[in-house]
């Protein structure tokens, strides 16, 4: 009678399950929409962003890099579906607007915190 190590049996089962999910993820990834930034002069970022918010984050970095160089970024966010680029649809535009508002809110919050800190420092003097 053969004896089996239960830990090895569980490990084999886990590996089979993981490989099954990896294959399913690859199948799903072919049909998933991703987002990229592209401009006529600046070109593409070459990233496959999972969300509009990540693409906006990348776009903001490009805008900041252009400002340091003294130029203007011409990149825009595009959705890529089934290998074809397309403009953003209404739902995606709302997601982009939400991402912009979050960033703006964080920026304003930081500015207000700096002002409050400077007021407290001047009051201490």
Overview of the molecule:
The protein is of the alpha+beta class and about 120 residues long. The chain is about 60% helix and about 15% strand. The chain is built from 3 helices and 4 strands; from the N terminus they run αββαββα. The radius of gyration is 24 Å and the shape is extended.
Strand arrangement across the biggest beta sheet? 2-1-3-4
> Would you identify the regions where 5 or more consecutive residues have pLDDT less than 50?
23-28
Task: Based on Cα principal axes, name the global outline.
Answer: extended
Roughly how much helix do the residues carry, as a percent range? 55-70%
Give the helix tally. Answer: 3
What series of H and E elements makes up the topology?
HEEHEEH
Find the structural class using helix and strand composition. alpha+beta
